[in-house]
Amino acid sequence: MEAIWLYQFRLIVIGDSTVGKSCLIRRFTEGRFAQVSDPTVGVDFFSRLVEIEPGKRIKLQIWDTAGQERFRSITRAYYRNSVGGLLLFDITNRRSFQNVHEWLEETKVHVQPYQIVFVLVGHKCDLDTQRQVTRHEAEKLAAAYGMKYIETSARDAINVEKAFTDLTRDIYELVKRGDITIQEGWEGVKSGFVPNVVHSSEEVVKSERRCLC
Amino acid sequence: MEEEPLVIFMSGEDDDPEKAEERKKSEELRSLWRKAIHQQILLLRMEKENQKLEASRDELQSRKVKLDYEEVGVCQKEVLLTWDKKLLNCRAKIRSDMEDIHICLKEGVPKSRRGEIWQFLALQYRLRHRLPNKQQPPDVSYKELLKQLTVQQHAILVDLGRTFPTHPYFSAQLGAGQLSLFNLLKAYSLLDKEVGYCQGISFVAGVLLLHMSEEQAFEMLKFLMYDQGFRKQYRPDMMSLQIQMYQLSRLLHDYHRDLYNHLEENEISPSLYAAPWFLTLFASQFSLGFVARVFDIIFLQGTEVIFKVALSLLSSQETLIMECENFESIVEFLKTTLPDMNTSEMEKIITQVFEMDISKQLHAYEVEYHVLQDELQESSYACEDSEPLEKLERANNQLKRQNMDLLEKLQLAHAKIQTLESNLENLLTRETKMKSLIRTLEQEKMAYQKTVEQIRKLLPTDALANCEFLLRDLNCNPNNKAKTGNKP
């Protein structure tokens, strides 16, 4: 039986090899930290429901990608149909932080004419003693690109929920405002099976907003 | 005990008059020394022997750990004997009959001899196919490569703990397994600078290391990559992998249309589930017993085995996949349920793979892919940005449909050409046979004529008239020619 959801968002998770993309996703979707895991060869897929407001559920389709550069010719195909993305770097690996710019460029080229709402994620924040990137400089970089910044740890389950749900909320707001619209032939956002109750409350919210204007 | 001879030696030096006794003593001394030395040598030898035993015990232990997997298909005793014979031939580098090897391989492979058998199959493959110079790996020894440093070091190190992470041989951090894996991957990355290291290779290397020594594994990795051409799919542009994904999709389209439609409707492309199958040769998801069996056939036939296994896997589970109603459940099935099937199902798949032949289709689809790519490029140049998207989308859909139709036609045409070509070949061989028959007949005729000439000379002139009469008779009735010709 398919769960009831208002919208379905497609998210993509990118970043250098071994920054912990798969571990972050698995913590979020399976609720546990995978001690051992295979490298992602190509793309992998996960999904989970998120309740952003009581009774309002969003289904997240999360695409995990291989970090090794040569796999981009395959992962590229999945950018276009994503509405949101988590761009990961490892706070103990400066190189992965320096590559953030390159990742953004790479997606920009292949996502047109659409856009991806990105959040910058400094991962492995439990390893604070080995930190090579300060919170301050990461925040600065994120702001420069108009992204939010959040630090997470899949091992200690820090901010994992928050990273995904905040991004989901932001996208939801954009959809509600009409800045992102559902389009034929684009998989980024899909509207789901909406029971009457939820539908009517949506209408109420909409009309209220209209009154305020 | 050891000091005694010395004491005797020291004390005996000063006494001069008792020479006889001294001599006796020195003789004793000498024999004692001899004994001591002898025993020392024996001791050393025993120690060495002990070490050897220990080493072989360690090796046995590690072999046991390495080969600790459940086999798919049990090997009968008679098959074991045939393999023994074949492996003897291997040392002599004798070319074996392909059909024979095929049958034998189908019967099964004992895992304790698997490493040797792979090397035997590689040798046989090399005897049948010679690599053109251009594709040959540089001639540098494994030992030489190990002395160098690789730029891929980081990428390799990072994957050591992620390759067969639950297998006892590879799980220990920087244990024997991981060290061998590192050496092998490093050496390969130095040998093949274009490919270097690509994720996925570590699994292939790992499977090899479970069945043979590091150096042998290096040789076999070279064989898979260069001789059989697996290295293409790991190249930085990954073009070849894209083509393979297209080929798999087309195979499904042609042979399992319902399944193809079901997957298409749910937007599941092969790159989503089959990329690891190709890049790790099934080793990252499937059980080792199954993977080893797949490797058996790969060593015999090469890259197309991956397609056969993929096709056989998907088609064997077709009903179950069709029952999955949405994207998530299909992906879950392909990712988790499919690799988890039981041994008898795996055996069936392997048997099926032995009977498949799809090389012609694969070739045709590859050609198609290139044609399609060219067309896509041309059409993308032709269209302008200002055109409304909808219109383009519609045109695109139409073109896609057209393309599919054309591709089918092309395929039919290909098949037709193939049959025509084989017909032509048949005719040509028949023609040459006929020609040679004609030539022999003509030679025969000349020989007969010569004989007739000779006979004519030997015969008296009055008999000749008779003979001519006979000859005329002969010309009218050629069936008698041979009989008369033989008479002197």
Could you walk me through the main structural features you see in this protein, from its secondary elements to its overall organization?
Chain A is of the alpha/beta class and about 210 residues long. Chain A has a single domain (about 5-190), classed as 3-Layer(aba) Sandwich (Rossmann fold). Chain A has seven helices and seven strands; from the N terminus they run βαββαβααβαβαβα. Chain A has helices at about 20-30, 70-75, 95-100, 100-110, 135-145, 160-175, 195-210; strands spanning about 5-15, 45-55, 55-65, 85-90, 115-125, 150, 190. In chain A, strands 1, 2, 3, 4, 5, 6 and 7 form a seven-stranded mixed sheet that branches. In chain A, a hairpin with a 2-residue loop joins strand 2 and strand 3. Chain B is an all-alpha fold. Chain B is flat. In chain B, helix 9 (about 175-190) packs parallel to helix 11 (about 215-225) and helix 12 (about 240-255) packs across helix 21 (about 360-380). Chains A and B meet through strand 2 of A and helix 7, helix 12, helix 15 and helix 19 of B. Chain A: It holds the Pfam family Ras. Chain A: Belongs to the small GTPase superfamily. Rab family. Chain A: Its main location: membrane.
